[in-house]
Amino acid sequence: EKGGFKHFMLKEIFEQPKVIRDCLLGRVDQQSGQVRLPELDGLPVPERLHIVACGTSYHAGLWGLYLLEKLAGIPVQVEIASEFRYRDPILPKNGVVLAISQSGETMDTMAGVKLAKSRGLPVIGLCNVVGSSISRESDYVVYSQAGPEISVASTKAMCSQLCALLLLTLYWGRRSGRLDTAQCTAILRGLQDMPRVLEDALPSLRAEAQRLARHYAEATSFLYLGRGPSYPLALEGALKLKEISYIHAEGYASGEMKHGPIALIDPRFPTFAMALDDEFFPKVKSNLVEVQARAGEIIALTNEGLDLAVEHPWFVPKAQAPLSAFVVLPALQLFAYEMADYLGKDVDQPRNLAKSVTVE
Ligand code: F6R
Questions:
Q1: Ramachandran area for residue 295 (φ above 0: left; ψ -120 to 50: alpha; else beta)
Q2: Ligand 1 pocket check for 357: Cβ under 6 Å
Q3: Which of the residues 127, 211, 271, 273 has the least number of beta carbons within 10 Å of its own beta carbon?
């Protein structure tokens, strides 16, 4: 049932082209270049959005913030569910809560949903499992349509959450008039093209991940750096490495590095950076120069043609800004996977973890 793959995690990473296709299914009107989300037609465009989630789903939400603010013009707060539920948060009446949960069973996220409802706010559930508790409790449900995820470490579910968040952004951005048809169509074309791009890229991404994993297998700690929408991906890359390879890793906003973590840099503490061809590149590059000045080794997910000299540039296909995440994410997942597998860890069943966290 692993379809010839050694682990469910690897199988699910390789399913991501299909996950994007399935998430888009029936949701794109080719003629008008519009996104169709009839499940939300009854809800006005939110004036403010509170995203509530845990773990990987929280990282997806944080990525969504960058898009929703920039492209849809919606003020967004992203909250770790276990903090949100006990903080007595201020929830203005014009707000909407978006709960993101693969399983739809996470206790803290569910508590956030109940809190929002008790304050009279509409709740949208972005869930993968159909009929799950959070999907039933929410006023509106958008399914991410990733299919069953077996591996404890979440991979394809995050891909589907990113895809759904992008669709939500385009849907609201068009309805509020913030995005015009041309902008929307351009992004949708890129997104519809992504499965093919990924199908081509995945085998070589894996080969490179394997090579790097052998080189870095002795490392005991990693710093993941990203800026802008790559910052949540840095957090996710670090989380994946921790949970399946048991190697310590920290994800940081690259501009925050000089405010503390730079003290850790030495030749035995490698940095894994997102240095893509986007508006953030010059800043990321200067952060990496600071790492190099302290003799830190660097792996950088980057694009061909950029002026960047690091030990291990890892070239990925270039994609326009919000879409690059769909290429970066599997690279991060594959690196964590290959590290864990090389070190002989139980990839699909990491110690101390459960697939759905139904306790506090
Ligand atoms: C990480 C992972 C967890 C979950 C988190 C939320 O690989 O799987 O961090 O993302 O427990 O789970 P859901 O999305 O089911 O609410």
A1: left
A2: yes
A3: 211
Q: What are phi and psi of 297, to 5 degrees?
A: -80, 150
What is the rounded CA–CA span in Å between residue 239 and residue 167? 25
CA distance 52 to 98: 6
Q: Identify the residue whose tokens are 């699909």.
A: 348
Count CB-CB contacts under 10 A for residue 307: 7
CB 195 within 8 A of CB 20: yes
Compute how many other C-beta atoms are within 10 angstroms of the C-beta atom of residue 176: 15
ipTM above 0.95, yes or no: yes
pTM of the shown model: 0.97
105 residue type, one letter: E
117 is catalytic: no
The active-site residue, picked from 18, 117, 318, 355, is 355
C-alpha distances in Å from residue 10, one per residue of 5, 189, 220, 270, 279: 6, 27, 23, 24, 32
Taken in order 288, 255, 317, 183, the sign of the CA dihedral is negative
Strands (DSSP E) found in 2-139: 28-29, 34-35, 48-53, 76-80, 95-101, 123-127
Q: How far apart are CA 101 and CA 87, in angstroms?
A: 20
Reported residue count of the chain is 360
Question: pLDDT tens digits for 11-65?
Answer: 999 999 999 999 999 999 978 889 999 999 999 999 999 999 999 999 999 999 9
The label of the residue with tokens 């682990």 reads: 7
Q: How many CB atoms lie within 10 A of CB 267?
A: 9
Cβ within 8 Å of residue 123, ≥6 positions away: 96, 97, 98, 99, 113, 116, 117, 137, 138, 139, 140
